[in-house]
Write a structure and sequence with these properties.
CATH architecture of the largest domain: Sandwich
Number of domains: 2
Radius of gyration: 18 Å
CATH topology of the largest domain: Immunoglobulin-like
Largest sheet: 7 strands, antiparallel
CATH class of the largest domain: Mainly Beta
Number of helices: 1
Helix content: under 10%
Order of helices and strands: HEEEEEEEEEEEEEEEEEEEEEEE
Distance between the termini: 24 Å
Structural class: mainly beta
């Protein structure tokens, strides 16, 4: 179910086709919230442009598949001239996975469509860039412990364990190879730098029960969090790692 929610970040778009792929740094963004870089290793990234693919096509993996493809519909994305794993391509949009082995610093991104290369665009990688997934009502995508969605009609309560989904938590242990789909849990390496706040108040780290990749998914992370006693109603939720914070404005469905 959660991978279906990740698919909400894919906005099906037109199929315009030009002489070659056209895009710029201003159209390369973090997928959940469309913010500009920097980006994190193993983060889901979107390229907006024109002439990116002949038609729309998403990844079609069998359950338990170990790897995302590096080519869909004659389209490839290269990060520092290494092929990146792909989720979705269309004439105006590509969703891809930033390689998990990237180190902080500058990288180049380019699209090759049917053998025709677009321009090199420079982007910056940092250790982590947390990005929550929004849904209707200004809530962040999160679930109860039984995997049912948190909503205004099905909120969590103080003391509950909730699962918050996001991208951009960076390296994990074990760390996947680029595009690899790990079947089990993998804790984030920078756990000591992780900060979660609810309603502007930092959560006691002891309440963070797990923070790392979501088993069976690529680029998707989760934070398993026990809600504090004084959590309040629909608190704003923010996640920060080493100075990079998820944007303000999303709340957690809590009563």
């Amino acid at each position: 179910m959660i991978r279906a929610w990740l698919a909400l970040a894919v906005l099906l778009s037109g199929t315009a086709r030009g002489a070659g792929p056209t895009y710029s740094a201003a159209g390369i963004v973090n997928t959940p919230n469309y913010t500009l870089g920097p980006f994190a290793p193993n983060a889901v990234v979107t390229i907006f442009g024109s002439g990116l693919a002949r038609s729309a096509q998403g990844v079609d993996l069998a359950p338990g598949a170990p790897q995302l493809p590096t080519e869909i519909n004659f389209v490839r994305v290269y990060v520092s001239d290494q092929p990146a794993a792909l989720f979705y391509v269309s004439g105006s949009q590509i969703n891809f996975l930033m390689p998990s082995t990237g180190k902080p610093g500058n990288v180049t991104i380019r699209v090759v469509t049917e053998g025709v290369s677009g321009p090199y665009v420079t982007a910056t990688l940092v250790d982590a860039v947390p990005a929550l997934f929004p849904m209707a009502g200004g809530y962040a995508i999160a679930t109860h412990a039984d995997n049912t969605l948190l909503t205004a009609d099905s909120p969590a309560l103080a003391g509950d364990i909730v699962v918050i989904y996001l991208t951009g938590l960076g390296w994990t242990s074990p760390n996947p190879a680029p595009g690899q789909i790990l079947p089990g849990a993998a804790q984030m390496v920078s756990l000591s730098d992780l900060k979660v706040s609810l309603g502007g108040t930092a959560v006691d780290p002891i309440l963070i029960k797990y923070a790392g990749s979501t088993p069976g998914s690529a680029g998707l992370y989760q934070i398993n969090l026990m809600l504090p006693a004084n959590v309040g109603t629909d608190p704003e939720v923010r996640v920060a790692v080493a100075g990079q914070s998820s944007p303000a404005g999303l709340k957690l469905a809590v009563r």
